Amino acid sequence: NEGLQVIRGRNDAGMEADVRARMALVLRDEGDLDEAKRLLTACLDYWQAEGHKRWIAKTRFELGTVELLAGRANVALMLLAQSRTEYSEMGDAGGAEACKTWLD
Predict the structure, then answer these.
(1) What are the residues whose beta carbons fall under 8 Å from the beta carbon of 71, sequence distance 6 or more?
(2) Which of 32, 53, 55, 102 sits at a 20 to 30 Å CA gap from 83?
(3) What is the C-alpha to C-alpha distance for residues 98 and 87, in angstroms, rounded to an integer?
(4) Distance CA 77, CA 48 (A)
(5) 52-56: average pLDDT
(6) 15: which residues sit within 8 A by CB, 6+ positions away?
(7) Distance between CA 104 and CA 31 in Å, rounded?
(8) Whole-prediction pTM value?
């Protein structure tokens, strides 16, 4: 939360979304899947409004991992497949492979 306070003073919404996404990953790893989902969903909404394809794919991927860990396989597989397609369309083989690993 300290990081967000510093970022808010800079008035940089993209950086704030990035910090929130990183917080969500920590929450995911700690098992707070509902809060991780809430933060990542807000980040995804932001990146979609900005039209930033790479961050949309990345956030959708991370959201898919949260959904999978929460036992919501159908939602997770849809998000991961969508992210894989987006990464492939951008020519990001590493991102697509990361999705494939979780899909397998």
Answers:
(1) none
(2) 32
(3) 10
(4) 20
(5) 96
(6) 7
(7) 22
(8) 0.88
Enter the tokens of residue 56: 């949309």
Q: How big is the chain, counted in residues?
A: 104
pLDDT tens column, 55-89: 999 999 999 999 999 999 999 999 999 999 999 99
Rounded CA-CA distance 12/3 in Å is 12
> What percent of the chain is helix, strand and coil (3-state, nearest 5)?
85, 0, 15
Burial class (CB in 10 A: 0-12, 13-18, 19+), 58: buried
* pLDDT for residue 24: 96
What separation, in Å, do the N-terminal and C-terminal C-alpha atoms of the chain show?
Answer: 35
Tokens of 94: 């590493």
For 29, list phi and psi in degrees, rounded to 5.
Answer: -65, -25
Q: Do the beta carbons of residue 45 and residue 55 sit within 8 Å?
A: no
CA–centroid distance for 69 within its chain: 14
